[in-house]
């Protein structure tokens, strides 16, 4: 079994995702690994918490989980963020990255 990407880990049954966000992009998309984080471009501006809300919605949709299961736990006003994803489906990392070796939760 392959190891997890540097930006994903589990803590007490919750998946933690370390993300580098680029707000104000033309389109919202996953760019790929950026150092030890997953880089995601978000089309929302960085003002009035819009980019954070858009990022949460984007991850929920990409991971196929309800929005209520995705929480911003670190990096409220930073480009470097940590999100918690509760009870994602098996193989959800594959949904985020297209990795075929994703062991899932």
Notes on the protein architecture:
- The chain has 105 residues and is an alpha+beta fold.
- It has helices at 50-63, 92-97; strands at 8-11, 14-23, 29-34, 37-42, 70-74, 80-86.
- Strands 1, 2, 3, 4, 5 and 6 form a 6-stranded mixed beta sheet that branches.
- A hairpin with a 2-residue loop joins strand 1 and strand 2 (14-23).
- It is globular.
Keywords for this entry:
alpha+beta; 105 residues; disordered C terminus; 6-stranded mixed sheet; 19% helix; 2 helices
Q: What's the tally of helices?
A: 2
- Cα distance, first to last residue? 13 Å
* Helix share, percent: 10-25%
Enumerate the spans where pLDDT stays under 50 for 5 or more consecutive residues: 99-105
- Total DSSP E strands: 6
Query: What would the average pLDDT be, to the nearest integer?
Result: 88
**In one word, what is the shape?**
globular
List the helices and strands in order: EEEEHEEH
CA radius of gyration is 13 Å
Structural class: alpha+beta
**Major sheet:** 6 strands, mixed
Strand content: 35-45%
Which SSEs are present, and which pair or pack?
Blueprint: E1 8-11, E2 14-23, E3 29-34, E4 37-42, H1 50-63, E5 70-74, E6 80-86, H2 92-97
Parallel strand pairs: 2-4
Antiparallel strand pairs: 1-2, 2-6, 3-4, 5-6
């Amino acid at each position: 079994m392959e190891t997890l990407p540097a930006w994903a880990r589990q803590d007490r049954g919750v998946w933690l995702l370390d993300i580098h966000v680029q707000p104000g992009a033309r389109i919202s998309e996953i760019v790929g690994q950026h150092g030890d984080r997953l880089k995601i471009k978000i089309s929302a501006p960085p003002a009035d918490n819009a980019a954070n809300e858009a990022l949460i919605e984007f991850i929920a949709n990409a991971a196929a989980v309800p929005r209520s299961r995705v929480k911003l736990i670190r990096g409220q006003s930073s480009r470097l963020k940590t999100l918690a994803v509760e009870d994602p489906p098996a193989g959800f990392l594959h949904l985020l990255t297209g990795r075929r070796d994703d062991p899932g939760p």
